[in-house]
Amino acid sequence: MFEFDQYLGFLLFLTILTIGFWLMIFLASFVPYWLGGAIVELIKEKRAKKQQEQE
Fold first, then answer.
1. Distance of CA 19 to the CA centre of its chain
2. What predicted TM-score, i.e. pTM, was given to this entire model?
3. What is the spatial distance between Cα 11 and Cα 17, in angstroms, rounded to a whole number?
4. pLDDT per residue over 35-53, tens digit each?
5. Mean pLDDT to the nearest integer, 19-31
6. What's the maximum distance between 2 C-alpha atoms anywhere in the chain?
7. φ and ψ at 53, to 5 degrees?
């Protein structure tokens, strides 16, 4: 019915699909969180530098 090579191909397909799913979850949730925090910190640093120059 099925050859062993087909079974290995199916396992490889499931592995790649699973890795892709978790990578998508990671990129869609954690990366925007990190970028948002980095942007907020950059804005804070610029404001602090501007206040120091005004004093």
1. 13
2. 0.58
3. 10
4. 999 999 999 999 999 999 9
5. 94
6. 81
7. -70, -30
